[in-house]
Structure formats: C-alpha cells, structure tokens
C-alpha cells in the first residue's frame, strides 16, 4: 500500500513553520507497514490543491492530508476534496454540538464560519478531534483512501493515533510490524555498514535499515509477526549476530542517547562522574545533565579553557603545560592529569577529561581535530587516554569529542561479557 | 518567479528526520522575492525522482534540490537530473583535489565513490561547499533553473547563502532586495509583537517580519533599492523606531547569536568571563565556546551540580546551602555567592552564575522553572541577581536560562547610551 502526505498551508511555503507533521506521519505509517512515497506541500489555494490531489491519486493508494480544516476562508481542504470527487459536504452533528457548546460555555457568540469545522464529505467516517474543534475524516472514494487531519500537531497526532491508525490497520493485509532500534557509538556509519554489508545485502525478514545522525548511528530491525513474542523470536537472532560483530559499539537496543545509558549505568552502580573539559567547553556536562535524574550521578565539572584553570583548579603540573619540552595542554599527559585531577578534586568515582583543538585555528602547533580523552576510575591503575583525529567544523568536533567521552566511559562501565 | 523545493532522501519519507531544509529555503527565497509554490519530498529512487522533476518543470521556474549528493550509490540527484536533461556529468577538478587532499591528510585511502561528490552536470555553475565535500550547482537548462544543494543543513545553508542566493538575485527583475536582521534577547515573541503591533500592521516598505526560534526572537526588515546606501536610508528609520522602543533587548542588527556579540564585546574591552553553572549544566560555557576565538575571553567554568562542589570549588558558605533557615542552593544568595566565587577563583573580570530547577522534579521545595542568574563584575559593588520563572521541559529551561545569562551579561557590557 503506497501513501502520500499532502500538507496544506501557505505558512509552510513561507517557511514560517517546519513540516513536522510529515515526519510524524511518515514514521507512524512506516511502523504499521504503509510505505510513504511522496510528501507534497501546497498553499491555501484551491486550484493548486486540486492539481496536487490529481497527481497524488495517480500514484498513491492512501492520501493523508494535514491542515486546512480551520474556520477561516483559507481553510478549504474538505471543500476541494469534495469538489474533486463530486461529493457533497454535510454537517457532522456531534461536532457541531461540541462547537456550539464550547462557545456557549465561554459566553461568546458563535460565528457562522465556525460551523465549517463540523463539515464532513458525505460517505466518510468521522475522526473525532479530542484536542480541538475541527472533525477529521477517513473516506474511501474513487479508488483511493483519503485521510483528512487537522494541521496543528497537538490535534493531528491524537486524531491519527486514536482514530485513523486503527482504521488503516484494519485495511492492511498480513500481520502487524514490529521494530527494534539498535544504537551504536564510537563508530561511523560507513564502517558500521562495511562490517554488516553481508547482512544488509541479504536482508529479507527482518529488514535491516541503518541511518546516521550527528555523533551516533542507528539500525532499525523490522519484521511482521502476530505477537511481540513471535517478533522477538525473529529479531533476537539478528541482534545477536550484529552484537557478536559490533558489541563494543552497541550501547542500547532501544531508542536512547548514550548519555542516558551512561547515567543509568552509573545509577545502577551507585557511582558518580566528574568532567574536566577543555576543547568541548562544557558540552559533555550539558549532554549528561540533559538526562532527568542526572544530578544523582554527575558530581560536576570544570571547563578548563586556560592553562591557569588547568593548574589551579585541577592540579595539572605546570611543567606539563608550558616550557621547553613540555607536552603541552593538548597532550596525552595533560589529558591523564586532568582526569585524575577532576576525580580527586570533585571527589567522584570517575573522572573524565578532554583536551584538544576544536578549531578554527591550530593550537601549540597541533592540528584542528586532534583530541585526547582521558578516564580515571575507581579500579586502580593510572588514567587511560585515547587519541582521536576528528573532522568537521568547531561545533562538530566539540560534539564528536563529547560523544567520544561518553562512549569511552560507557565501555569502562560495561563488563566486557555483557556486550 | 515560481519556485519548487524538491528534497531527496528516503530518510525523510521514513520520518527519520524532518524536512527543515524546506523551511529554511522557503524563508530565504521569500525574503528575496521568489515565491515557493510547492515542496515535494521523494526517496532515493531514480524513477520517482524523474517523475517529480517532470512535474516540477511544468509548474516552476526555479527548482531547488536538497539531498542526494553524497558518495554512496543511493546518492543520485545529479545523475538523475543529468539524465532527464540529456546532459553529461563531468568532474569539477577543484572539488576532486579537495577530496583527495582530505583523504591524504587523514592518511586514509580514498574510495572511488568519493569522487562522485566532485561531479557536475555540464554547463552549470559550481557552488562551493565550504563545510563539506559535495559540490553544488546552479544550472539553467530546458527553460528552468536547477539549484542543486547537499542535504546536511550545515552544508546546505552556507552554500545557499554564499553562492546560490547571489546568483538567484542577479536573475531577478527590478531592484534587488536588501534585508536587515534585528536580533532580540530577554523578550518573548508575543510581547515583542505587542510592542510593535502598530508598525507591523502598517508595514509596506520596508516589510517587517518577526519570527522566533528557541531562546531568541528575530525581526527581518526588507526593502527593494538600487544600492545598499539607498536601502539603508529606508531601513535606518525603521530600525531607529524599533530601537527606541526595544533598545534594551535589541542586541544586534545582523544575523548573530547573543554569545557571539558577548564574545565580541569582551574582546573589545579586553576582559574575560568565568561561569558557575548549576541548573544549566555547562550549557552557557558550551554556547560561548561555540564562538571561534572565545578562548581569548572565556577563562573557564565550573559545573557545580552538588553542594559540595559549590562549597569547595567556589567557596559558597555552607550556611547558605543547608541547615535551618538556609536560603538553599536555589536562591538569590547562592547565585550571588557563586558569581563572586567563580570570578575570584578563576581570576576573571566577570563572574556569571546560574542556579535553579530544570525539572522534571522540584528541588528544595522550589518549583520547576525557578532560576536565579547572578553577575559579579569589575565595577565594584556586590553581585547583581535576577529571578526568572521559566517554562518548558528540562532542555528548554536549560537553554532559556543560559540565554538569560548571556542577555544579562550583554546588558552589563553595553553602555546604556549605546542601546
């Protein structure tokens, strides 16, 4: 079953808002096995909307409309669809009653145009609007299924989820779809694909879909099955195979950022972490403190941009930082000293550090993208340090360096036999 | 001139990302007087992309493509456009040199597919990619103008702004458009609009368009004029009128984040700032260090999530934090002590502090969203403190609190007669 999403609204074409409805609906439709082949956005213009509908009818079995159900003269989605199909608009009495009741309760006179929000194209199934006034509709006509939803996301999402989705599911042949997200860190999209290329090429059921966003890579496994248990029996072996190859990068098998998983691991272990950040400028701390409840595991951090702060707040010996033959602020030695220093000064179980060159200019003759990450832990021995060569602009290098700190800490917090 | 935006990428149709490129481009094209009539999104599928191009050529004078310029086999935007137009792909040597140089500098072997990013359709004008590898293109062919841009916003935006927009402007009839961005902090979109409603309602030339994103509000003034000087003579009086009403919020009259302006002001004054952050968790430091060259003005920061760190690293007296009748960590007194403490300990000219409740749960019986911002300066007198009541989820409260710190610091750094 092929779907197209048509968003109606001049505000989208003016760039006043982003079409997040298309993203939401695409994800929801994909999750129940309906492939979306096109998104179209068109303004509040009857002629151009008609043309868009004509094109969509040629190439889609389901057309999902969002927007243009409001009370103003610009809101004409239902009128145009009715016109295209040669059908009449009728009044949906329960919706009209609700609108009238609302105006009565507010003591405001209802204007005629508000009644437009209770209109239905004859022959369709009304989709109740639990969070607004305009009624939606699912209509089968002319060989196509028309799903008509309001534009505001807070009305559109519950209407789709509660009323449209069950009706669409009932129309679908076969068993429902089940998905599982596998989340990876410390590896780029291309090397991940390279190491799974045989699985990805041979995929049939479950399907294996990799995708990347800044700083992380995700794989979605999807299969059809009658029950979640039967789905798991098909998904588990694929996950196990991927884990056997990439276990040291696979930090979660559900939608979660690595900072959430690190916070959970620390909480379970009853441990805390502190951070000494030079080139990331506080980004590691900011990511970790985006996690609700992180105050239980994050002791705090020092953003040590200057050598003076590295020395005085974190006890890095001056001989490491400056002078003849000193390794310098951007070095393995300084990263180690920062990790140990922040752990000691803040009294945490773990100390994580980073020092490097975020750009745009080189520092101490060291190139942009050279970064050292250090970890000092409660398990004895000196701090561990990793050298990274990151690419990208200043913000990207900061993000990649902060995600590397999280990745290295995750590795240390995870017993190797659990991976 | 009618435009259509075609976004290419299966990840958009799967709902993995929102099509924010269409929003950005719509706004930018509208600002130079090019009306966008349709957005279309299509997957990485040559047949369907061809059909989308055929439809767009019927109804648009300019087609702006985003996405599908990468190195993988899925990236086929240029191939398909070349095929539709019956043109050949050629290699853009400067782009190929740049790609080869990058791989050489990393010591990695370049795979053949990476050369695809240097391809151009013959006859077009290359659009340099200052933040990535894939070269873009502007091509006039078959009665239509094709603008081909990469998908990642951090590559697409600078390419459009620096290279595509000037070429499009040169094609437009009439006098060129001139825009000026007015940037505001410390005020919400609705109260800003309220205070300018008479100007916005009566606007003709220049046009006055407000829009908001998280943590800041922008107004764009636009006019047509033969020269920048003539444009300025029309824009200056409107800016002056707005400044007379909202000068204490208007931090820049060009596209700039408040952290950039704060960094510039500090640099000019030869001063430094240090930050003590509790509820923002390092976000202030991270924003400020996103600015290239911020190392000259940012001494460093302490993320003082726990009372122990507030006491030991920043010298906040224990009696403020805990015990009978203590004001607590989230208080005016603690904010003042943190600002003074971080200024002293890090030896900076300015100390900025924040303590508050980012949520989801209340702290010390204090509600989510209660935040105190403190500033200690070189100009004598005790630290100044402001109480804020912020709304939103945890991340939004963090961002609004960090932007408030920047706003308050900006006010202190700006002589009142300069506003």
UniProtKB/TrEMBL annotation, chains A, B:
Q: Which SMART domains match?
A: MoCF_biosynth (SM00852)
For this protein, the record's CDD domains field holds: cinA
Question: TM segments?
Answer: none
- MoaB/Mog domain spans which residues? 4-170
Note the InterPro entries from the entry.
Answer: CinA (IPR050101), CinA-like_C (IPR036653), CinA_C (IPR008136), CinA_KH (IPR041424), Competence-induced_CinA (IPR008135), MoaB/Mog-like_dom_sf (IPR036425), MoaB/Mog_dom (IPR001453)
Which branch of life, at top level?
Bacteria
Matches recorded under NCBIfam families: cinA_nterm (TIGR00200), molyb_syn (TIGR00177), PncC_domain (TIGR00199), PRK00549.1 (NF001813)
Q: What PANTHER family does this protein's entry cite?
A: NICOTINAMIDE-NUCLEOTIDE AMIDOHYDROLASE PNCC, NMN AMIDOHYDROLASE-LIKE PROTEIN YFAY
Record-stated family: Belongs to the CinA family.
* Protein name (Swiss-Prot/TrEMBL): Putative competence-damage inducible protein
* Species assigned in the record: Paenibacillus thermoaerophilus
């Amino acid at each position: 079953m092929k779907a197209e999403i048509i968003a109606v609204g001049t505000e989208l074409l003016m760039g006043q808002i982003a079409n997040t409805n298309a993203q939401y609906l695409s994800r929801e439709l994909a999750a129940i096995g309906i492939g979306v082949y096109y998104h179209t956005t068109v303004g509040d213009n009857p002629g151009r909307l008609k043309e868009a509908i004509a094109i969509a009818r040629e190439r889609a079995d389901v057309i999902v409309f969002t927007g243009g159900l409001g009370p103003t003269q610009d809101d004409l989605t239902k009128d145009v669809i009715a016109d295209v199909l040669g059908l009449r608009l009728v009044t949906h009495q329960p919706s009209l009653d609700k609108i009238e009741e609302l105006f009565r309760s507010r003591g405001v006179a209802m204007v005629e145009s508000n009644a437009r929000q209770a209109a239905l194209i004859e022959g369709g199934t009304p989709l109740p609007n639990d969070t607004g006034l305009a009624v939606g509709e699912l209509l089968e006509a002319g060989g196509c299924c028309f799903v008509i939803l309001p534009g505001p996301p807070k009305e559109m999402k519950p209407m789709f989820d509660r009323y449209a989705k069950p009706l669409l599911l009932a129309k679908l042949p076969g068993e429902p779809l089940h998905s599982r997200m596998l989340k990876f860190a410390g590896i780029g999209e291309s090397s991940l694909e390279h190491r799974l290329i045989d699985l990805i090429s041979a995929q049939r059921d479950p399907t294996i879909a990799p995708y990347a966003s800044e700083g992380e890579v995700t794989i979605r496994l999807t299969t059809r099955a009658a029950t979640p248990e039967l789905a798991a029996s098909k998904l588990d072996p694929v996950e196990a195979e991927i884990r056997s190859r990439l276990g040291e990068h696979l930090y979660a098998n559900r939608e979660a950022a690595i900072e959430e998983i690190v916070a959970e691991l620390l909480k379970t272990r009853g441990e805390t972490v502190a951070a000494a950040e030079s080139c990331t400028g506080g980004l590691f701390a900011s990511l970790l403190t985006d996690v609700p409840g992180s105050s239980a595991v994050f002791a705090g951090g020092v953003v040590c941009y200057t050598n003076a702060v590295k020395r005085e707040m974190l006890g890095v010996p001056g001989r490491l930082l400056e002078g003849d033959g000193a390794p310098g602020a951007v070095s393995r030695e300084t990263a180690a000293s920062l990790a140990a220093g922040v752990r000691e000064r803040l009294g945490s179980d773990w100390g994580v550090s980073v020092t490097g060159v975020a750009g745009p200019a080189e520092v101490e003759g060291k190139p942009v993208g050279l970064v050292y990450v250090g970890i000092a832990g409660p398990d004895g021995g000196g701090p561990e340090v990793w050298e990274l060569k990151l690419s990208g602009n200043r913000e990207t290098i900061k993000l990649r360096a902060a995600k590397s700190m999280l990745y290295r800490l995750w590795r240390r917090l995870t017993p190797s036999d659990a991976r």
